[in-house]
Amino acid sequence: FYSCCEKEEKKMPSSSSSFSFGAGGGGRGANGGGYQNLIASKMEEFTGTSDALTNACAFALCASVVGLVALKLSRRTMTMMIERRATTREQERGGGRKPKTTLKELKCPSASDDEKVTITFYYGTQTGTAERYANTLVEDAQKRYGLKQIFARAVDCEDVKPDVCEEVLSSEKCAVFLQSTYGDGDPTDGSADFCRWLEETATDGRMPDMLEDMHFCTFGLGNRSYEHFNAAAKQVDKAISGLGGKKMMKITLGDDDKSLEEDFEEFKEALWRQLEKTFQLKAEGEEGDFDVEKHSYAIRKEEDAEKVNELTKIRERKSFEMSRGSEIPTQAKPYACPIKSRKELHAGKSDRSCVHVEFDVSQCKGLTYEIGDHLGVFAENAPDVVDRVCKLLKVSKQTPMELVRRDDAPKSLLPVFPGPISVGIAVARYADVLSMPRKTAIKALASFATNKKEAKELDLLAVDKAKYHAYVANPHRSLLEVMEKFPSAVPTLGAFFGCVAGRLQPRYYSISSSPKDVTNGSGIVTATVAVVKHKTKTGRVHEGVCSTFLQNVREGDRVPVFVRKATFKLPKDVKAPVILIGPGTGYAPFRGFLQEREYLLKSKKQELGECMLFFGCRKEEHDYIYRDEMENALSEKVITSLDVAFSRDDPKKKVYVQDKIQMKAKDVYKILRSPNGAVYVCGDAKHMSRDVNRALLQVLQREGEYAIHEAEEIIRRLVVDKRYMKDVW
Question: DSSP letters along 57-86, please?
Fold first, then answer.
């Protein structure tokens, strides 16, 4: 239509340029009717009527459609501009897909000077802490000894594939292993193949001298509340020794249940002493001189404020590099998943909270899961926390910002997050302010303090172990509390996000649904979330970042998520008898197990093996979550028995799941000694998991008349055969 008008307009006198429909339309031209009549005639052809009102409405409709298309195209252009801009800045951000490491890069480089010592820091990380420690050790070693004495580097165990392990490790003269443990004593996802190769090669016994030229030591990152404390680090340390490696010092077991940062600092000091003793190194510099500026980001400045504001609005809708629906969501690129529903599971009488959250993944074909897998969730800090932080930083929440990684930035500085975004959004989505501050963060704050007394106190906190332990580590004082105690220490935005606040990490929840659920199918993923809220030693009411966030989500809200695969699965043999033990939210994966069994029973008409379910909570009328579902599963023969322990109903006697296990000792023993029976435990690692393990040992001793060492061997074999599995935290 417009094309046709253009052609006709060229034939018209230049004075005819007015357009309107109906009488008295007026116009800009002398005659005021040429362009008007042209459009009117074309609209008559288009609509097939000469009615002025109809043609006017038709023209308005066409104009609206064209306007909407133009608006959509402009938004798409702006989005594409942002994506192109992000791509061109990927290098300076330090982000992007991790490049493949070559064998030449992995092998220990031959020192040009015989007196120069090459030190490799191998790290196996799950959340990035071990990687940060490795990069910190590289930086501090270079500062302390200088480049003439040493060459230091950090290597991710994930890059050292089994087919090159022997060649890479046998080239090392000095290696330090920083190994994290997660789950039930497992190595991290990335380091699993590396650890498995080490253990199998060391156990094989054919190469006891393979690493005879290597001097090594190990630092473990674990949590003592777990039964298999630092198991992965112990495994690495034992394997390296078994392959001929020479220990420079005893393994250090870092404990996140107390203060992992303090354990790391002590390990670092001991490491320097051993390196100096073993390789005759001499300290030249002081690694404690923390360079705040180098560990800070620069802030990009834009001249065009209107353009920055528009870019900020678009980026805030995509502040994570989101995966598209056809892609597999990952931690680096999660899926912005809409919330289908959220409901409270506890009764009104309860003084605690537990929420059932349903995530609609039907539009994300790349997101698939199985029962027992974990859902990774990126949460946001609560609005009041964001307000307090912005007030301390003396900056408006609406201020747009974009971080830039400096050319001389150390490797320990994290990649920048996408921008520009407002300060408020950046604090909400990225700043970890409710965890304890690191000593380097306190050093950085001290450098910004304008009050001399506050600066002196912060300096002491950063260097004095006893003061740091008493004020920060022991009471678990948060970074936000420290900043509020020393308000004159106002870091720049670049320093705050670079070396003061840590980066918010995803929280993991055992998925409490099955993709084969007869009601929802694979389009819904559910999480069962206990809302964390308790008073700390400092008197602060601590609220869990992610659990509080999920407690407040509404239908339609989008939350970044991804799936982490797990090995916590039902036996492949559906007739195998199983015992499920999960008090509280420990029931979450078993809800998916029961949905799977219901599908097999009703849709596939398969005969199922015996299934004993042990559940526990405080009070029957308060927190007996999913009661109807459990009782229905029993009546439908999805499970064969249901035993529930209420620990607070009887004030005279507390009853826990381990007590219920003892009461059903004969049935439990029968499954324990079945050739294909399996036991699953989910929930608290610090107390419940250990108490359940003790109860199972007692059942074996009493019902089978085994000695304690025989019972322990039976349990050990069940673990090795993957027939005694735990998902504990």
Answer: HHHHHHHHHHHHHHHHHHHHHHHHHHHHHH
Tokens representing 669 are 């023993």
Picking from 224, 102, 116, 245, the residue whose alpha carbon sits closest to that of residue 172 is 245
Say which range, 21-30, 210-219, 352-361, 562-571, has the weakest mean pLDDT. 21-30
145's tokens:
């000894």
Which residue carries 């417009």 as its tokens? 2
Beta strands (DSSP E) in 325-379 are 335-344, 354-360, 374-377
Q: What is the dihedral of CA 357, 361, 366, 368, to 10 degrees?
A: 50
Q: At what angle do helices 688-704 and 708-720 cross, to 10 degrees?
A: 120
For residue 607, the Cα-to-chain-centroid distance in whole angstroms is 39
Average pLDDT of the residues in 717-721: 94
Sign of the torsion formed by the C-alpha atoms of 503, 382, 553 and 547:
positive
Contact in structure between 252 and 177 (CB atoms under 8 Å): no
Query: What does the alpha-carbon distance between residue 565 and residue 372 come to, in Å, rounded to a whole number?
Result: 8
Place of tokens 């309107």: 20
Mean pLDDT score, 599-610: 92
- Strands (E) in 6-144, as ranges, are 117-124
Torsion of CA 225, 228, 231, 232, to 10 degrees: -80
Measured between alpha carbons, how far is 151 from 128 in angstroms, rounded to an integer?
23
The answer to whether the CB of 563 falls within 8 A of the CB of 368 is yes
Q: Kindly state the tokens that stand for 610.
A: 């015996």
Decide: pTM greater than 0.70. yes
Q: Is 228 left (phi over 0), alpha (psi -120 to 50) or beta?
A: beta
List phi, psi (to 5°) of 97: -70, 135
Q: CB count, 10 Å around CB of 609?
A: 19
Residues in the chain: 729
Q: Is residue 139 a contact partner of residue 412, using CB atoms and an 8 Å limit?
A: yes
Distance CA 151, CA 704 (A): 59
647-to-26, 363, 583, 622 alpha-carbon distances in Å? 85, 42, 11, 12
pLDDT for 5-49, tens place per residue? 444 444 444 443 333 434 344 444 444 455 566 666 766 666 667
